[in-house]
Design a protein that fits this description.
Elements (H helix, E strand, L loop, with lengths): L1 H19 L18 E9 L4 E2 L21 E6 L3 E2 L15 E2 L7 E4 L7 E2 L2 H9 L4 E5 L5 E3 L11
Parallel strand pairs: 1-6
Antiparallel strand pairs: 1-2, 1-3, 3-5, 4-7, 6-8, 8-9
Amino acid sequence: MRKSAAVPLVITSSLALALSGCSGGGSGGDGGDPTADDLQYQGVCVDPDTGQRVDDDVCDDDDARGGSGVGSAFLWYYFLRGRAFPAVGSPVSSFREGSDYVRTVPTGTSYVSGGAARGGGTVSTSSLSQAASASSGRVLSASESGSTVRGGLGSGSKAGS
């Protein structure tokens, strides 16, 4: 009888541990939505045919970790914290994929799609916070399942939209 009593306890404990990792929050201290300090990437919209940054509002809203929606000709490129990002109309070719930007954000990271300064700049806590608060900015987190979890930075983000 001892074995049968121990099995439900192990299963219950395992289930509780597994479910605790499924919360939608980021690492923002209290387990809530990501904060600007948690964000690591700034997404800008790029026309792959011309290799130039375009207005963020032409990229598909359903970006799913850096891809584009079916039928969308534009892609999100995610620039790393501490790296420069181009102005609208500027070529992305002067930046290096892998060291300056990625096309798909790594699992477990938080990022912003859109809302970056039109004149370009450097990815920082301040620029990420401004992007997240912009009407075109969306705070997202890449989950291990490959899905996108929407988060927010206050009332200015379009979390869950």
